[in-house]
Structures are given as structure tokens and as C-alpha cells.
């Protein structure tokens, strides 16, 4: 199992913007302490090259990120102040997701400690997302003719609106988003399959919904590669999630996804996505469970 992480870029933000960014340091530290992974499994990505970025994002938008020319309005839409360090962090994350995908094609699964920047559109950023790492990695695999059919399984509590828009009309990438109906983004894009969830959904209803969807997805899409966004903002402890899924229910969600992919011999690259529980330990423990389940299944 490969774990993509680069501590150099873990905290490029001003102090007031760092929570819950600290999770990106705590996750690998806890996995190492518990013996889930070894130092040899931690991979440090290089910055992504421009040609690969431009497979997905517009040249104008990339130049804005490069030269720090985003307007105040554009920065507010992203929710983060622009900085060279933030742009660098983003392209390292994106290369990490590509590296995870390439590793997973040989070994079954790989996980990016960061990533899941599904609110980034081709020409703009939103919701703490500058560049769309799943979209970039999917387009790279397709451009290199390493895969023919990609499936994005997005189980973050927020709809993957950027991914939906980027791949609209592109049948080689099927977007599935199971998200809070009344949560951000309040204007939803149209994924290939959207499953909006009511506020307050508990473990049983959530897991039963997912159990119904996964076999249909695999049989319909027949993917030869899956990107899985395992956001833990579905937790009942999350400040913004509006669902009532327990930590055990979140772990069972991961078991359902990994088990069906393993059963069908479909490689998978995973990104952590969102998590905004009041206590950082709830976020880190839930993310670490995703790594533990991946190690158990694969």
C-alpha cells in the first residue's frame, strides 16, 4: 500500500486558516505509531508539470494560480488567501494522486493523505479547492491510454460539483456523488448519478443506500479504475455535515467500497476529502480507519 504525503507542504496557510489542515500531519504520524504503515510506504510526490495540469484546467486559470492574480472575489470563492506556497501544495497533491493511481494499477490500492479537491472546476476554484486532483489524474490515465473507463465514487458529504462539470459529456469518466441534499454547494451540478441524502441520515439508512448503489455502479459502468473520495464529513460529530453517521458506520462504508472493488479486481486510488468535526481526534481516527480498512481488504 502506497501512502502519498509531503510534510514540506502540510501547512502553507496563515495560522487562522490551519484547522483542520493539521490532520495532514497527524494522519501519517498515527498510522506509523500504530504500525499500520511503515516509513517505506510513505511516498513524497514531486510538483505536477504544467502539461498535465492543462489536460484538465484552462491556461488562463493556471496562469492566475502561477502568478497570484486571483481577484479578491475569486479568493473568497475558494475560501483561502492565495500564496505561492498554496499553489505549490496543490500541484504536489495532484501529482500524489497520479502517483497513487499508477501504484494502485500494480498493487490494487494507494491512498493520498490529502486530495479530494472535487470543488475545483476547469476554470476556477471553489470550496478550499484550487485544482481538481481526481480530474487531473483521470485525464492523465486516459491520455496515457492506461485505462479506458474511470469511475469516481465520491462519498464526501458535499457534492463533487467540479468533477461533475469537468466530465459532463465525457463518457470515459463516470461521476457518482452521494451527498447531503441540503449541504454545500447549494447550486448542484449534474453528476452522472447523484444520490442526495436527507439531513439526519443514520448508519443503517446510509449503508443500505450505498449497498444498493455499488453493485449497480460496477455492473453499469464496468470501470477498469476507480477514484474513491472518502470524506469523513458524513460523521455525526461533523460541524457542517448534517448527517448522523457514527465512526463505525463510516468505517463500514469504506469496507463496502473496498470489498466490492477487490471482488471485481478493480484498482483504486483514494483521497481523504473533507472532515470538520469539532475535535481533531475524530477526524484523524476516521481517516486512519480508511487506511486500516484498505490494508485489511487489499
UniProtKB/TrEMBL annotation:
A Pfam family matched in the record: Hist_deacetyl
The record ties this protein, via InterPro entries, to: HDAC_classIV (IPR044150), HDACs (IPR000286), His_deacetylse_dom (IPR023801), His_deacetylse_dom_sf (IPR037138), Ureohydrolase_dom_sf (IPR023696)
One GO MF term attached to the UniProt entry: histone deacetylase activity
Is Hydrolase set as a keyword in this record? Answer: yes
Q: Where are the transmembrane segments?
A: none
Task: Name the GO terms of the biological process aspect.
Answer: epigenetic regulation of gene expression
Keywords in UniProt for this one? Hydrolase
Family according to the record: Belongs to the histone deacetylase family.
PANTHER family attached here?
HISTONE DEACETYLASE 12 (PTHR10625:SF19), HISTONE DEACETYLASE HDAC1-RELATED (PTHR10625)
| Protein name (record) | Histone deacetylase
Record the organism: Chitinophaga tropicalis
Amino acid at each position: 500500500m502506497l501512502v502519498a504525503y509531503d510534510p514540506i507542504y502540510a501547512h502553507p496557510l496563515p495560522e487562522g486558516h490551519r484547522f483542520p489542515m493539521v490532520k495532514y500531519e497527524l494522519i501519517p504520524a498515527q498510522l506509523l505509531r500504530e504500525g499500520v504503515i511503515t516509513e517505506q510506504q510513505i511516498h513524497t510526490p514531486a510538483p505536477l508539470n504544467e502539461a498535465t495540469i492543462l489536460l484538465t484546467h484552462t491556461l488562463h486559470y493556471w496562469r492566475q494560480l502561477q502568478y497570484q492574480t486571483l481577484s479578491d472575489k475569486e479568493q473568497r470563492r475558494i475560501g483561502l488567501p492565495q500564496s505561492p506556497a498554496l499553489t505549490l501544495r496543490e500541484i504536489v497533491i495532484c501529482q500524489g494522486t497520479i502517483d497513487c493511481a499508477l501504484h494502485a494499477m500494480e498493487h490494487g490500492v494507494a491512498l493520498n493523505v490529502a486530495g479530494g479537491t472535487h470543488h475545483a472546476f476547469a476554470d476556477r476554484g471553489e470550496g478550499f479547492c484550487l485544482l481538481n486532483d481526481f480530474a487531473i489524474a483521470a485525464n492523465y490515465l486516459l491520455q496515457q491510454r492506461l485505462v479506458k473507463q474511470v469511475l469516481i465514487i465520491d462519498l464526501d458529504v458535499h457534492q463533487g460539483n467540479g468533477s461533475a462539470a469537468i466530465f459532463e459529456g465525457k463518457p470515459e469518466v463516470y461521476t457518482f456523488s452521494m451527498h447531503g441534499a441540503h449541504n454545500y454547494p447549494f447550486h448542484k451540478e449534474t453528476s452522472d448519478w447523484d444520490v442526495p441524502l436527507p439531513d439526519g441520515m443514520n448508519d443503517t439508512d446510509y449503508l443500505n443506500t450505498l449497498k444498493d448503489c455499488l453493485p449497480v455502479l460496477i455492473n453499469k459502468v464496468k470501470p477498469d479504475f476507480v477514484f474513491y473520495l472518502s470524506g469523513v464529513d458524513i460523521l455525526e460529530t461533523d460541524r457542517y455535515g448534517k448527517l448522523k453517521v457514527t465512526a463505525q458506520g463510516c468505517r463500514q462504508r469504506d469496507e463496502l467500497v473496498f470489498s466490492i472493488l477487490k471482488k471485481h479486481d478493480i484498482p483504486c486510488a483514494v483521497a481523504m476529502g473533507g472532515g470538520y468535526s469539532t475535535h481533531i481526534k475524530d477526524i484523524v481516527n476516521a481517516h486512519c480507519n480508511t487506511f486500516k480498512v484498505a490494508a485489511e481488504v487489499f
